Predict the 3D structure of the following.
Amino acid sequence: MELTGRDIVCLASSNWDAMWVNAQHLMNRLSADNRILYINNLGLRAPGKAKGDWLKVFRRLGEWFRGAAAVRKNLWVLSPVNIPLHRWRVVRAFNRVVLRRSIRRQMRRLGFRRPLLWTFLPLGVELIGALNEAFVIYHCVDDYAFNPGVAEKQLREMERRLLAQADLVLTTNPLLYEERQPLARYIQFVGNVAHTPHFEPSDARQAPARLAELPRPILGYQGNISGYKTDLELLAQLAQAMPEASVVLVGPEGWGDPATDLSALKELPNVHFIGRVTYTELPAYVGAFDVGLLPLRINDSTKRSFPMKFYEYMAAGKPIVATALPAFAEYRDHPHLCRLAADADSFIAAVRETLADPTDHVAERMAEARRHSWDIRAKEIRALVARHLAEKESAT
């Protein structure tokens, strides 16, 4: 049973041209034989004092007037106006009306009929019943109510309604599954994965010029560098404890958390901020790492996540040192794949142990990563959705 020839409206958790996460990876694959209207991230965090917050709002206005843009065959991207002040009932009502009208207008233009509504955000509940949808999927990859600056009470209420109404709920973390299982009609755990072939080593790939001259070893992190998820103090302690090493940070600074303070790290001479690179460029940076770092804070948000970079590092054959998130527990007894640390001292010790390991475990890491690839997971999700969809349609 396959999911083909369908129209899908996807309310995504990330803009199409942002760092690739679940929404882009999955919809890109589904667009091979389905039509996708991809709705850019509507924004959950209220604008703060940062000038960039309001620039995003005004930029969205311009994107809204342009309508849906075709980015590849069978896939269009729409950026509706949305005011991220979800605590206010009148604002939520305005957003609901504008969102529904914007999507219905693009559906008419594209000829979408009886679409699947696939939402990665609790805000998707505002669309149920407004699109003449055939099926509703809630793809839960994070507990966004724990993010800084969001309307926690309102998001919780939206998610409760969404869980009760969705035809199928997918979760990427065991704790997300456990907490939502009593509230959902049908729920399935589908663990997070990565586009592993994209990161596998290649003889033709060269180290980026920005890293080629740095002292070895290179201790690398790629991803969003934000204060509420990244343990910045741990990174500073690592850099100070290993002045001979280069700590390389690849990714946007403070995305989702404008209060992020990187000043202490930027004062350290062996810490190097690369900034955001394209998804095409990213494997060359990861390939230049000697150790892949996952210095994540352990809090309510990270306990309910599973970063894709875990398997991206592994696909590149890189040893991993990570803080001991519950999602990584199965690797506790497999240090050749990943060493887990409870605090800064054990994290630094794990990095040193990793660098001192004389055995080449690259093949084992790559084999483990291939078990957790998007190619496999997308097929599983296709089959799961197709089965539930067929059951619903045969019952009506």
